[in-house]
Design a protein that fits this description.
Helix 1 packs antiparallel against helix 2. The chain is an alpha+beta fold. It is elongated. The protein has one domain. The protein has a two-stranded antiparallel ribbon.
């Protein structure tokens, strides 16, 4: 029983950290000048990767000319060693 309570508590703490990050990230974009949007996106990618313990984040945008095509607009990669999945 105690283990279940501790697991639930840990899960709630993780969810709160994630929701706090989303709130902080959203608020940072409210009044950001156009020339700083890219750096804010990159910072948000870094913070999300660090919180979720993932090594990269990629943002894609649908092409206006070719709706089925995607254009990579932003990428974040951690500084650690990288391995391809399945290696």
């Amino acid at each position: 029983m105690q283990e279940s309570i501790e697991t639930t508590h840990t899960e709630l703490e993780e969810r709160l950290r994630f929701e706090t990050l989303l709130t902080e990230t959203s608020s940072r974009f409210v009044n950001v000048p156009a020339d700083q949007v890219d750096s804010e996106i990159e910072g948000a990618q870094r913070r999300i990767c660090e919180l979720l313990n993932v090594d990269r984040s990629t943002l894609w945008q649908a092409s206006g000319k070719e709706p089925l095509s995607l254009l990579m607009t932003h990428i974040y990669q951690s500084q650690g060693p990288h391995q391809l999945p399945g290696s």
